[in-house]
Design goal:
106 residues; mainly alpha; Cytochrome Bc1 Complex, Chain D, domain 2; signal; heme binding; Cytochrome c domain-containing protein
């Protein structure tokens, strides 16, 4: 029995250590990527706050494809009102941020 417990613990530890930091998105990633420059809770005329984004995304929370949809929206090139920072997000960073926003951006 002790061997099974040790094996299970080893598997969990290995999985935890191998997980990408981006997969554990949080406000730290938003700070690192410069997202707070436009999406902080302070007023910015052209960008919703993270809380507003989370509130807007709440209706899709738990839906199949919600994360993929938000990720593609984050990275979508726009002809008018280009958002260069969004366009330069890697797929991994955009996915992590989308997951964080869908989880309520806490």
């Amino acid at each position: 029995m002790a061997h099974a417990h040790h094996t299970a613990l080893s598997i969990v530890l290995a999985f935890t250590l191998s997980a990408s930091p981006l997969a554990q998105a949080s406000s730290a990633l938003a700070v690192e990527m410069g997202c707070n420059n436009c999406h902080s809770n302070t007023f910015h005329p052209n960008a919703p706050s993270f809380q507003q984004l989370a509130d807007q995304s709440a209706k899709r929370r738990g839906e199949t494809g919600a994360e993929d949809h938000l990720m593609s929206e984050l990275r979508k090139p726009r002809l008018v009102g280009r958002i260069g920072a969004h366009e330069h997000l890697s797929e991994e960073s955009a996915r992590a941020l989308a997951r964080w926003i869908l989880d309520g951006a806490h």
